[in-house]
Amino acid sequence: MTAVLVHATAVVIGTTGVVLLGPSGAGKSTMAMQMIAGARQAGHFATVVSDDQIFLDVLNGRVVARAPDTIRGLIELRGSGVAKIDSIDQAVMHLALSLVTADAETRIPEENQSWNPHPGIALPLFFIDRTVAAPFYWLSVLIPGFPTIYPVA
To answer: Mean pLDDT throughout 28-47?
Structure first.
């Protein structure tokens, strides 16, 4: 399979690869930085793979994300500009996280959803309100197997 370019941000929290989804201006970069800060504060490894655009490929049955060469190691800080950020070249992705504006109708999404950006690529899909101030903590209780706020010693 040839790698597919997707409008999304990819991060690694602990050993969990997360694809952040949302339209332009939804807050993917901000959410990524908040997740990384929360994870690091809790003692976990956390970094960016790519901001705003990612190449997805399937290698040995696993979805792998990497940055386009032109934006590797960069993140857009909306309203402030583009900045350099620590990043890794590629990582296995385990889930997709859609940034939403929760309201009375969407506050409890349907369970067991999947994100399928291209035939042969599928990840479990979760949702988070884009205004959540501490997303790492929310995800640590929402998603089974996600790094916890209390690292195992």
So the answer is: 94
In 8-89, the DSSP E strands lie at: 9-13, 16-21, 46-50, 54-59, 62-66, 74-77, 81-84
pTM above 0.85, yes or no: yes
Q: Report whether 130 contacts 99 (CB < 8 A).
A: yes
Which of 67, 68, 35, 50 lies closest to 137, judged by CA?
35
Close Cβ partners of 141 (under 8 Å, ≥ 6 residues apart): none
Pick the closest to residue 76 from 35, 40, 24, 144 (CA basis): 24
Q: Is 55 helix (H, G, I), strand (E, B) or coil?
A: strand
CA distance 45 to 117: 27
What strand order describes the sheet that includes 90-92? 4-6, 54-59, 62-66, 90-92
d(CA 78, CA 111): 32
Task: Give the pLDDT of residue 152.
Answer: 53
